[in-house]
Specification:
- This protein has 14 helices and 30 strands.
- It is of the alpha+beta class.
- It folds into five domains: 4-173, P-loop containing nucleotide triphosphate hydrolases (Rossmann fold), CATH 3.40.50; 215-299, Translation factors (Elongation Factor Tu (Ef-tu), domain 3, Beta Barrel), CATH 2.40.30.10; 318-391, Elongation Factor G (Translational Gtpase), domain 3 (Alpha-Beta Plaits); 396-501, Alpha-Beta Plaits (2-Layer Sandwich); 504-615, Elongation factor 4, C-terminal domain (Alpha-Beta Plaits), CATH 3.30.70.
- A six-stranded mixed sheet has the order 2-3-1-4-5-6, sandwiched between helices. Strands 7-8-14-11-10-15 form a six-stranded antiparallel barrel.
- The longest helix is centred in the last third of the chain and has 21 residues, at 581-601.
- The radius of gyration is 29 Å and the shape is elongated.
- The two termini are 57 Å apart.
Length: 618
Amino acid sequence: MEKNRNFCIIAHIDHGKSTIADRMMEITGTVEKREMKAQLLDSMELEREKGITIKLTPVTMKWKGFVLNLIDTPGHVDFSYEVSRSLQAVETAVLVVDATQGIQAQTLANVYLAIEQDLKIIPVINKVDLPAADVEGVAAQIINLLGCSREEIIEASGKTGLGVDKILDAIIETEPTTIIGTGSRPPAVAGAAPLAVSVVTSEAPYNGVGSVSTRALIFDSYFDDYRGVVLYVRIFEGEIQKNAEILMMAAGTKGLALDVGILTPKMTPREKLSEGQIGYIVTNLKSTREAKVGDTVTLVKEPASTALPGYKNVLPFVYAGFFPVSNDQYKELKEAIEKLALSDSALRYEPENSPVLGFGLRIGFLGLLHMDIIKERLEREFGLDLIVTNPSTNYEVVLNNREVVEIKSAADLPDMSEILEIREPWVKGEIILPKSMIGAVLDLINKKRGHQTNVSYIEDRAVIDFEAPMANLLTDFYDQLKSATSGYASFNYELNGYRAEDLVRVDFLVGGHRLDALSIMCHRSEADAIGRETTKKLKEVIPRQNYEVALQAAIGARIIARETIGAYRKDVTVKIHTGDRDRKAKLLEKQKRGKARMKRFGKIDIPSEAFMVMLKRD
């Protein structure tokens, strides 16, 4: 235990976490120079292409006689649940701040998580070799935030390797955490709840023989097609040997540790994992649901009496319908999502049936980037051609009998006569931006029905705290924020409860038929504008027919907007060579009756572009 140090790297997007991790592996000799490549720990194709970290990645290194266990974490707000899980498995957090950009929104969010977790924070200013680096200005921001001294801040460059050895030395100097069960334990993650079976006490859990039982925390898991479920664990007490029988305390499932070892970053087998180590366990389990993230692993022959503090279940708040273009691919879509859900604990899905789009799945996400990543993985890795409906959030509907029902889309809304009130989710947000751009951003927040709660300053930057409805931030808030601030603003948010608002369901009718897949929930004050804008766009993408087609937006029985797609006109009188008016009138009347009949029975084919219209609002 004395020779083990567990740490993670936390930072805002693009501040250089993965590059510093590369240099650490290079300096410690964990990876040979010939095998080295940029962002080595970002192994997923999408991670390398987009230049972002999506999944946390552990790696074990050796430095000056110490074993260092690193967890490289994502920076984007949609994957902050990966960061909070990592923090519970480590004692030290290396906080990386870009010397050219200073403190950003996700920097603050991650610092608060680390402080609540009572971790030792090592501040690092990265990219000091860049011409635009403002080292002293950024150092002043860090001192203001952490209350540390200037000497504690390490200047580094992930590109050249400058100062990385000093970071490793600082990690070694950190004292390891007191073992759980000997009088103190690390505090739980912000908002974390103990698992169902866990009653955490400060007394050591004895197995009755006098020795301390084995307890390990699962901080990540994934499904390997060839090996089964692989667990990433931090051993807090005892040891887990190869081929040992293991028990998941909350799930109550038993399994076999077929293989144990450390990551360097390749899987390196060991005979056992001991107290204080971070490593992997290859199990004989068939589903990650049998070994959930946050569960405690113990041994079957000497089980622990109490579990470690677990994690709060991550609940999605952005929902979208995923439908295959061809209904033949529905089974493939379901199998693909099941595979992705095995390694993504935040993914929730359920079957959905639409009269227009056929069979599909309604999938819950933590944000729009999370949704984009899953969509791209489905299209690339599984070769699926998908239609994605308008992303929406979940609402709480209070019925007249005071029963609260949760709905995930406008199509699920009960009859308005049965509803007492509708509550929508609100978020608490934080925007960091240059002082000169405050006015434009406050105007944008007001347009989204939000309101600013506080404005504070860190050196030359302003921090705007605000509250706004989640639904209004879903479609294009991030793009508009970047436009209003020339890309200088950074944005972070978290869910802040549900509030009752004057919400209505806006339906869209094509040729008098309501399309549930296009229905949306919005505030009454915004309904008219959204109705007019959407019907205009639908007119551009729905093809013309041989008869007139009405496009309408409605709240209940009240039509709030209308556009008309004109009919194709075929000249039926062209074959008449005489000027007989009666014959012409007779033919035109026959054509009119034919069009009226087609209008009654005609089926309009709705192209997938009609659903993309809903995503892009001006």
